[in-house]
Amino acid sequence: MNGIVIGVDxxxxxxxxxxxxxxxxxxxxxxGTAWWLGLREARRKGLPIERIQGALVPILVGAILGARLxxxxxxxxxxxxxxxxxxxxxxxxxxxxxxxxxxxxxxLLYFRRQGLDLRVVLDAAAPAMILGQGLGRLACIPNGxxxxxxxxxxxxxxxxxxxxxxxxxxxxxxxxxYPLYELAxxxxxxxxxxxxRTRRPFIARPGLLFASYLGxxxxxxxxxxxxxxxxxxxxxxxxxxVFSIVGLMGTAVVLLFIARxxxxxxxxxxxxx
Length: 273
Description:
Elements: E1 4-6, E2 11-15, E3 18-21, H1 22-44, H2 49-52, H3 56-74, H4 76-81, H5 96-113, H6 118-143, E4 157-159, H7 178-196, H8 200-204, H9 208-224, E5 232-234, E6 237-238, H10 239-260
Parallel strand pairs: 1-4
Antiparallel strand pairs: 2-3, 5-6
Helix pairs in contact: 1-6, 3-5, 5-6, 6-7, 6-9, 7-9, 9-10
């Protein structure tokens, strides 16, 4: 059988009743890296760091709640039979789109109250967000919660550990290595955004970098989801594809907002509004 065998236990170490999972470690690394890079970009853009740092808790809470809620909604059969597992987010099981939406809403509400220019804040966040999303996919590999469709490709993932989150019937079955696909796409998009962030068109039009991130990720995620077999919501579209369309609609709204905004606005507004 050709493929890459993933037989590692999703639990890194057991400490009495506590279990530290690889998922938790990689997720914390991804979130920490994204936060560090976001602060670095905010400082470079002249945003007040002391007011930016206060957003960490609301963004994390919003992202976690949104990511978990969308994951639970997408898999009602699992959580209706095990309702206690809804709160066990440390075991894995989040939806990236839910995290993006929840984190953004919480962050935007916070920054709005701080009187900051939301376009500039979003531009500072865009490279950090996509890098964090890419690194976060590393957490899905030992956990088995973002598996692909069955395949005969020689680089398929083959899960053999019964503790993995994939359905029992897929244990030992070669699957598309979806986490690797998205990791590669996210890192490529990060490279493009990182290079574009200092180019004149993106400096002259605050918000354009974020719109580029949101639009490109929406298209990429829509196409990559064809390598997965998840629950179909409607019109043959999986959950991630539905929200990718929503993401494209959001991109259009951001672009319209940018087009109506005056050029040369200050990087942050002094009033707290």
